[in-house]
Write a structure and sequence with these properties.
about 50% helix; about 260 residues; binds nicotinamide-adenine-dinucleotide
Length: about 260
């Protein structure tokens, strides 16, 4: 329980990787503020589960396309839980289409949710971390922060932006006891991946099996999906004192994808 006394905000934590981060941090004693969309009863069940694990847990419905709601979420965490000591920008959406067919509103949403929201989250949280002389800033980037795939212009742009934000902010806060890193998973089996299968089938004219085996797992030499628990355990490690010299890093967890 090395995170007892610390608080964490995880955006997009009502499902998938974000929920796994929240559970893993709570298992180490952190008090967690979760965020994201979904069924109210399901969210309350997850919040209550976190509270049972590590004490008071909160849900905040801030929309990651709205900078004022992001700032208010950070302030609410400070007022009601303390900190925040750990912030994880994880919320994300995907849309798969050729650039000429890509709806501008989807492009704007991906840039806001997957990239700009992290900047607003960190802008609001860093002053509290500087005051505490301790902080952990973690983003879920992607293998797509390092390499590209066709028909994902907005997503690849946004994730490369996260990699740049990570490096720059790490330098700015290097002497403040704050580390800034991003984790770059390959394909992790979550609703985000499941939902893009029909679009990839349509845009590439493939069957479901072909998308899973020839598009998704084709990129991953291990031929296995990464699990949400594996990603979350790396985030927990980054919160340890032993990890204090890891900063500005883009940490791949992609079954060898970006080694190829
Ligand atoms: P997911 O769909 O399971 O979870 C996405 C979360 O973001 C949900 O909680 C959702 O409610 C939330 N969200 C969406 N729009 C939001 C908004 N406007 N405001 C607040 N929250 C919002 O997906 P996931 O696979 O767990 O993805 C989490 C992160 O991991 C994303 O940034 C994604 O790009 C990244 N990632 C995923 C994979 C993968 O293969 N699943 C691989 C690499 C990176």
């Amino acid at each position: 329980m090395f995170l007892k006394g610390k608080t964490a905000i995880v955006t997009g934590s009502t499902s998938g990787i974000g929920l796994a981060y929240a559970k893993a941090l709570a298992a180490e004693g952190a008090q967690v503020m979760i965020n994201g969309f979904g069924d109210a009863a399901d969210i309350e069940k997850e919040r209550a589960g976190l509270e049972a694990t590590s004490g008071k847990a909160l849900y905040d419905a801030a929309d990651m396309t709205k900078p004022d709601e992001i700032a208010a979420m950070v302030q609410r965490c400070h007022d009601e839980l303390g900190g925040p000591d750990i912030v994880i920008a994880n919320a994300g959406i995907q849309h798969v289409a050729k650039i000429e067919d890509f709806p501008p509103e989807k492009f704007e949403a991906i840039i806001k949710i997957n990239m700009a929201s992290a900047w607003y989250l960190y802008r609001a949280a860093v002053p509290f971390m500087k005051a505490a002389k301790w902080g952990r800033v973690i983003s879920t980037a992607s293998a797509h922060s390092l390499v590209a795939s066709p028909n994902k212009t907005a997503y690849v742009m946004a994730k490369h932006g996260i990699a740049g934000l990570t490096k720059t902010l790490a330098l700015e806060v290097a002497t403040d006891g704050i580390t800034v890193n991003c984790i770059s998973p390959g394909y992790v089996w979550t609703p985000l991946v499941e939902k893009q299968i029909p679009d990839t089938m349509a845009s590439r004219g493939l069957t479901r099996e072909q998308v899973v085996n020839d598009v998704l797992l084709d990129a991953q030499p291990t031929k296995e999906f990464v699990t949400v628990e594996q990603v979350a355990s790396l985030a927990v490690y980054l919160c340890r004192d032993e990890a204090k010299s890891i900063t500005g890093a883009n940490l791949s967890m992609d079954g060898g994808w970006t080694a190829a």
